[in-house]
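Quick one: structure for this chain?
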Amino acid sequence: MPSGQQVKGFRLSRGGIIDRSRTLSFTFDGECYRGYLGDTLASALLANGVRLVGRSFKYHRPRGILTAGSEEPNALVELRGGARREPNTRATVVELYQGLAAASQNRWPSLRFDLQAVNSLLAPFFGAGFYYKTFMWPPALWEKLYEPAIRRAAGLGRASLEPDPDRYEKAWAHCDVLVIGSGPTGLTAALAAGRAGARVILAEEDFRLGGRLLSETVTIGGKPAADWAENAVADLSSLPNVRLMPRTTVFGVYDGNTYGAIERVNDHVATPPPFEPRHRGWRIVAKRAVLAAGALERPMTFANNDRPGIMLTSAVRTYLNRFAVAPGRQAVVLASCDDGWRTAEDLTDAGVSVEAVVDTRANARRRPDAPWRTIAGGTVEKAHGGTALTGVTVRDGTGQQLDVDCDLLAMSNGWNPTLHLTCHLGHKPAWNEAAHGFVPASTPPGMTVGGAAAGHFSLSKCLADGARLGAQAATEAGFAANPSPPPAVGPELGHDPEPRWPKPGSGAKAFLDFQNDVTVSDVELAHREGYGAPEHVKRYTTLGMGTEQGKTANVAALAFIAGLTGRTIPETGTTVFRSPYTPASFGALAGTHRGEDFRPKRLPPSHAWAQAHGAVFADAGLWQRAQYFRKAGETSWQQSVAREAWTVRQAVGVFDVSTLGKIDVQGADAAAFLDRVYVNTLSTLPVGRARYAVMLREDGFVLDDGTVSRLGEQHFLATTTTAHAAKVLEHLHFCHQVLWPGLDVAIESVTEQWAQFAVAGPRSRDVLAKLIAPVSDVGNDALPYMG
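Got it. Here's what it folds into:
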């Protein structure tokens, strides 16, 4: 960012990767604002001076924007309206578009004045586990008072009660190398594998490829990092064997080198174009995968560390350098690693006044010509302000306290490698003392991890990792790969973290989990009450739950638990990472399998006749079957049903039972096979007769019932209930192929091949006689019971 730039409002006068020629209007809580193409909702709100964006779950405390990515715990908003209303969307990943309508949630009557903020005053009564203790007595009030009140208060956002009007799709893809993440490691990995001729898919959750390169002011090969990333993307686009998939989150790893992904095809428009899906769910099968998902920055823990205006240093640099937005006018930087210095320099170059850099390391580096005050070995004790940050109390290395006015606090406590996908098949991470974080100890088959996701935080190391791992993956997939040397990197700061973990007495309002309002004192209480294992603490306090899934909270909490229990962090262990990595829409998982596409209508042969005679239909399994026939003058279904029942008992009735499952069983061992799957002995059934039979599951429980007819010595026809036809056929195939593969028997469904009608009542033989006599005798002797 050029030095000497002035802050006009909060949008910088130049710079950023936005299209200033494309102005977009949007609303937040009914107020109209403007942003640019390339903004996120979060960056556009910050550019318009909006700091307060939501209220916390339990205490309804005012919350602002903490991050710039999918790990955001605070800025959850409701998008659109009506049938398309979508709650709990992270403003940091919402791509700004013309006419976007967003609203804050979890507040009443307004965001700035929320009556439920009184909960914050009652925090001593709402500590960890208060549900379990408070609502036990008297028992009679549970159903009358407690449960209804809890249900009304629980949850975030409002789901639409109308049918979703949008389309969704499922798709499958195969590749030689899947690269997850498009930062420096991902881009060089994709280039190395793509140039070797391998089929490459590069998946990136952001709408723009480049990762952290879009947010930093370093140079690669003599060019700004963002320009180098743009050139790398252009090179990849020119390779026919490379598929670039922005707006695509790989959310899970499954057996058989299969990866689940969600592509947000039309989330960046108000309404998807006709016949286009909103989301597309991908099942990607890859011979090899390179995880280059980067790392997530950790916050600091101190009193009131949740105030709007407190932000991670990486997010501050993203808003400055990518979106040309100054998140504040007066800043304090708090860090336990060199990211604080990098952020202070970028803030100064953007025209933001940096009041102080507080480095918790006693031997912190100093810049003699810096225009800010440097406080080495210090920390922030408390943040001040209500709906916006107004200042902080700092304690220096000698123990002296001083108050510093500011409207922005940028904090960094080091980085956590984004290793979630490495754990989805049961693998567990290991603590790395050099990286001061958990790194992958083992990975799913075919996956390698590089760059910051592996604990390598220097840019040069990330570029080298990507080139090496991309070439290795292509070679293992059967291609001859010769990796090029990584490009030279301009001067970059080191990492050198000395994390400052939370300590007892950090303050009742020192938050570990911003989304669920879990404080240091909550974890202390859980420990006092016997909860020491991370999984137990998580469930007792709700730590790490919700849409953020502990991405910013868990490691600090684990370190705190370790301190309370007298163990090390690796001895304490971690909670379990499960898919999806970020929330996935049910629509994308289901695809087109919804409504009548999910349960297509299957019509029996009499359907058209029944429809012409006024039948009322009902769903029976996958079929639509006539339920009753209404006649003139009948005002209720009971009248119609009673008339039909009386007619059958007095005369005759005909019922289309073609919907019943029909399974043809033939072969020399057909009788022996049926003896094994039914309770009855069917090998003694004479040809031309039927027998009622009950089928058991493999564990001995009843699966289905029906009739079995013997059409020949080696030929049987079994009927099933309408709803269980497919399940019974599957069971019979399992029994034949797995349990008794030596039996000579063939099994085939003939449900759709045969129409079937039940004729019942005292005059049923008269009807049959008119239909088939004299060709067939339907007398009692020729057609006896079960004949």
